[in-house]
Here is the input.
Amino acid sequence: MTDQPTPEYQQPVPPQQPAGSDAEQNKVWGILAYIIFLIPLLAAPKDSRFAKYHTNQGLWLVIVSVGGAIVWSILGLIPFLGAIAWIIALLWWIPILIFAILGIVNAANGKEVPLPLFDKLPVIIKY
Here is the structure.
């Protein structure tokens, strides 16, 4: 038999989360971005890419929501078209609500996944 030294046992090192640490620390800001985007815009850490990413998505969701509301409100003033416009306006809020829920779920899971149909929109808040 050969005299080979037996290796010493070393405690396993837990994996580090280089990119996930920002997401873990700023999940609340990411979730709030889809509920009230203005709070994370003003109060989230300026160096948090995760918070800025979700604030940007939340801001676009607000812009699209308000834009749709303005269009449907104007069309609602036209006599015959008004009844149809209000029905369409009610249907307009369903995908907006679904997109907000998707954004909240993505933020809660620490993911930076663009909302459906929002992936081609420009970045408003630089991150």
